[in-house]
Amino acid sequence: MIKRLRVTVDGNPYEVTVELASDDSAPAPAAPLAAPAPAPPQAAPPPAAAPAPGPAREPSGPAAPGDVPSPLSGCVAAVIVKEGQAVTEGDHLITLEAMKMNTFVFAPRGGTVTAIKTAVGALVEEGQTLVTIG
Known about the structure:
single chain, mainly beta, CATH 2.40.50.100, 2 domains, four-stranded antiparallel β-sheet, 11 strands, 0% helix
């Protein structure tokens, strides 16, 4: 059985003819190979659209008292606490994901969560304030 196939090598498309082996025990005689004929030129694909901008990032600056900074750059996977919630030192506040690994952010001191300055899915920079504890 003979099939015509189109293959692309290094970005150049070619049309080739291939003879498929039969199920008989004796192999079919090989047909002489012809040089592949270049396929007709095709239109170039449209340019890719620019990626959509992610959520806005808070500029890094000097931390105010009570600010809990991000220990690394990554994506916010979970916000565990809510504004107004009382926390104690060591409580789990936020989970960050970077390079397919989760990093937990814990409360450095006790108090009340006065502000949550990020959201799930937001990209954060190292040192960016995530939560403020009053």
